[in-house]
Amino acid sequence: MEHVATEPLSRMTFRSLASALGVSTYSFIYHFGSRQQMVDAILEEAVRRQSEPALGVDIAAFDREQFADWYRAAFYRSLSESNRTSLRLEFEAGALEPIDPDLGTRITSSFRDWLAVVQRWLTTNGVEKKRAAVLARWLADTAAGLRFGYLMTGDREKTVSAFDVFLGAYLREAVGP
Fold first, then answer.
1. Is the pLDDT confidence value at 172 over 70?
2. By residue range, what is the domain housing residue 82?
């Protein structure tokens, strides 16, 4: 993933990756079969890293504080330096998916999954379904915007502070004080 951090997906090739890692190009061809399969594997790892906090967790059963703690931890984890490459790949692939059918819809699907998780939690906590959809979008879009700001500035402290202020306001609006 370290090499991927410095190379746009559009320029990623077997040769460039093999050269950066000091292995033969044939190794990548043998392992992945095609450039598309290699890019798929890279994006799958990026999605896995971002989705890990939701695996095996019944988020819908959380009370307000449990949800806040869980979402805060997931957000903070997404800002870790070791996750920065995955974050960049998510934004790059997410921007390219609508115009490059070869990339598939992995990032878009992952985003929809996060929306569904939040919407399910909101409806379980008494929020009407249509309003829950809007509120879920507000949370996901704001968190994505804050992550994008972090990606551009590298200022984790200010991003975390902004997120904490937002999350408090969000929860008050979504489920009350």
1. yes
2. 44-175
* CATH code, domain with 90: 1.10.357.10
Using alpha carbons, select from 84, 108, 80, 81 the residue that is nearest to residue 94: 108
pTM for this prediction? 0.78
**Is residue 114 assigned to a domain?**
yes
- Greater confidence (26 vs 125) lies with 125
67-71 long-range contacts (CB < 8 A, ≥24 apart) are 67/121, 67/171, 68/167, 68/171, 71/118, 71/139, 71/167
pLDDT at 66: 94
Overall number of domains in the chain = 1
Q: Is residue 27 situated within a structural domain?
A: no
> Is there a contact between 39 and 122 (Cβ–Cβ < 8 Å)?
no
